Amino acid sequence: MAKSLYEQALEVFGYAADVMNLDPNIRKFLERPQRTLIVEFPVVMDDGRVEMFTGYRCQHNTARGPAKGGIRYHPDVTLDEVQTLAFWMTWKCSLLNLPYGGGKGGVKVDPSKLSKHELERLSRRFFYEIANFIGEKKDIPAPDVNTNAQVMAWYVDTYTMHAGYPALGVVTGKPVEIGGSVGRNEATGRGVAVTAAEACKILGKDISKATVAVQGFGNVGSFSAKVLHEDYKAKIVAVSDVSAAYYDPNGLDIDDLIAYRDSHKGFIDGYPKGKKIGHEELLELDVDILVPAALENAITEKNADRIKAKLIVEGANGPVTPEADKILLSNGVTIIPDILANAGGVTVSYFEWVQDLQSFFWDLDDIRSKLTKMMKAAFNEVAKAKEKYNVDFRTAAYIVAIDRVAQAVKLRGIYP
Fold first, then answer.
1. Does 104 qualify as catalytic in the annotation?
2. What is the tens place of the pLDDT at every residue in 182-239?
3. Helix (H/G/I), strand (E/B), else coil: 200
4. Terminal CA-to-CA distance of the chain, rounded, Å?
5. Is CATH 1.10.10.10 the classification given to domain 185-341?
6. Options 3.40.50.720, 1.10.10.10, 3.40.50.10860, 3.30.457.10; which CATH number does 32-182 get?
7. Prediction pTM value
8. Runs of H (alpha helix) within 44-137
9. What is the per-residue pLDDT for 188?
10. Which residue among 104, 174, 226, 386 is the active-site one?
């Protein structure tokens, strides 16, 4: 029987916990989500029908601060997925030394089948249902798969109407006009690019001469590609989204591709420049850097042996299974794990939250320089742990992250 996503995540956690000799009592505590809310809620559709939807909000650990993590809308959202993503968020926040624990939410829905008014009603009703769980000092959601700044704006308004006061810090990833931060849209992709560049330094690779394939061309993938090319001069030779994949050995024009996507309902299918290739073919291209920035489990034991890239930078959460990890490592592939590589988003979400609480906002240069500084610091800590324990980057990242949370639990003690 196949392992659940949470069981896969526990396997990675367990290996790091073994290497660092984690206190078994603390280990028991950290292996389980603290609380999960499941809600079943009605939404009135445009034709007057009432449809029922299922939503989730999980808080994995709050020893270091409020829960933090996105809310996704997807027909395949499950309890297992949401709990796993919350688990990963705990380590991501800890690794970047943010004063947060891990949270995650989701609604089982295909938003492409809803009108804008139906999407708004669903969003407002879901946020109302979980409102007792949420708060600027309790749990701060953010955008995720198929949610965006507009959805966050509806969340803020819904919460504010019931709270009776403006609560701009209750979510991050909002429009700038209502307390959002500049630089948030690009943050995850920028973090991916920064960690890719730092990895290249360690590997002795000139990133300006590197070829890159990017799986997934949503927010994370497109900005990863854009920043890697514009700031680091890497050549983006292939990109894909759910609709299509394109390859050009001379390099794709990322700005042109983004403009095409944005004018074609968010998809790149039909792009007139570059050779159309298969989705699996993109993952197996002979490139220097592969950025899987779509959904989890993109690289498994079935295709890991065919991966030719020597550096994988995980833009998505959990794109490489534990079984694939072992194969790739044995083939000499360096993997920069999701909890480090894609932590730029939650880091700038933290900046946004701080700005909201202070009612004092920073400019784009400040955001970018602070983000780059924090990503590099986290990368260097992981690199040191890698050398100290003689492990791979993923295990090293977990060791750094777990240690911080474990210290917080130890200092606070177990109530009562």
1. yes
2. 999 999 999 999 999 999 999 999 999 999 999 999 999 999 999 999 999 999 999 9
3. helix
4. 39
5. no
6. 3.40.50.10860
7. 0.94
8. 79-95, 116-130
9. 95
10. 104
